[in-house]
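hey can u check if this looks right to u? its 337 residues, i copy pasted from the old doc so theres a chance i mangled smth
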Amino acid sequence: MPKQARRAPWPAVPNPDPPHAMTPAPTVRPDPRVRDWIRRELGADPPRAPSLIVTVWGDAIAPHGGAAMLPGLIALLAPFGINERLVRTSVFRLARDRWVAAAPVGRRSLYRLTPVGARSIEHAHRRIYAPPVAIWDEGWELVLAAEATARERRKLGLALGWEGFGVLAPGVHGRPAHAASVLPRLLASLDLADRVVVARARDDDTLGGRTLASVVPQAWDLAGVAAAYRRFLLRFGGVIQRFREPPERFPHPEQAFVVRTLLIHAFRRVLLRDPQLPAPLLPLDWPGAAAYALARDFYRLTVRASERHLAAVLADASGTLPPALPWFPERFGGLPD
């Protein structure tokens, strides 16, 4: 997510028509089948309030400046069965963790992403909305943590795991090399640059022994990730048909927002476990590409109507919503005009 210009509290911002949100649309009634699907999904797997708030903030609020009044957030979360007390408690915890910060606006408080929260959103933005890596030069990044303490190795392992590194051997972490490495920033943030060894490597099967590619099944739980992707496809693959109607039919704004949010919330949960390995290292029946295509198509079908709901709810509860930032239409390779 590109860096944002500093904004005034958003209730004072004028309201030019934001893209994908404010074009006129006919009044539509809720779709009974979508309503029943939402009810079943929320009953079978109710989202936890703190996690869902992070999803809503990253997916819907961040593109409009990253700030929200508490009444607006409470109204946005109500269709998910999350009450005011849970929203307030979750936001206060995010503020305690320095993920958001409150600023007074009259008698109310505006909650805005902090640098910590913005970095987390930016990281998620790259993983969720960018297409899978298509080209790999067969290089690897390796991290050897033999000189770090046990506590440092645990912290390092968690941070590396979040970035898609697997444990190739005791004390050895690795992942297929990317064009831009995260290691300089990551090791500096952990203050471990002088206690680990990093290297780039390539497999050479003429040397004897096993290759790095051969330990992929042991280094990552690909079977578990594949199963999670298949559950995602099964869960959302049916209801998407209700949004694939002729162009003159518009989805109900609140239903579009709820389904879009549940979609990204579920997709994000799978992606957190997915090391996003290049295709040559994955099983032939890997379902990740199909899951990404479903998320992309579903997002494009719901984005216009869901943005209308977002603007209406936040304007009613908290003031005027700023227009979407320029990088928002680039999600999933480009959103409809």
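The chain is about 45% helix and 10% strand.
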